[in-house]
Amino acid sequence: VTRAVRARDLDGVRLTVSAGGTREALDPVRYLSNASSGRMGLAIARAAALRGADVTVVAAAITADVPGSADVQHVTSTADLADAMMALAPSSDVIVMAAAPADFTPADPSAQKLKKSGDAGLSVEFSQTTDVLAALVRARHDDQVIVGFAAETAGSRERLLELGRAKLARKGCDLLVLNDVSGGAVFGAADNAVTIVDSTGVVGEAAGDKNLIAHRILDAVVHTKGTTR
Ligand code: CTP
Ligand code: CA
Question: How far is Cα 174 from Cα 181, in angstroms, rounded to an integer?
């Protein structure tokens, strides 16, 4: 019912959402990744399409079904994700960085499959990846709304908001969707609980099904779009 009331409030809006966890190659057959399932990003894609948006999903190592109504670009590493997002940015009205990009990548991935050497261990040097969200913010055009996510092991609401405020300021995005992952299972789960903040403070709160949370996030986007920055 509520969905019918809101229907089409993103009519014609071009929304690009990243989803999933990137993979950073150690050698041709091994990679470093994380537990992101991509469900939150895909839920946003689905919800945005229902509300009339033209949706593009940049999917990092996602095997789950991407909604048929959305365009999809598959990527592997954070560097690939950065390239895809930067290419889509000029033609995007809303960008949602729901993906979990690896922060580090092997500095010198091996072209050959790594071999054991006697009973020695393995040390790998990592370098930092591109901060895609920060790059998107630097390239932002007028009226573009950029949304970031932050999963923090905060432990308390006060600490979560403190970490969120700092991250929002550091990234410079319009909205930041915070969730506390101290309890454990969020990754891969159907449910979640989030707090949405902008530079003025808390602008939304949602708990439950990721589809429902997606609509709350889009409500905040619609509200932000209607506000002069
Ligand atoms: N992000 C990104 N590029 C990266 C890392 C993160 O675009 N290389 C985006 C994520 O998609 C998310 C937001 O930045 O929307 C916050 O991610 P998070 O991991 O919380 O922030 P980091 O800057 O990586 O900081 P931390 O050291 O806390 O991991
Ligand atoms: Ca990170």
Answer: 22
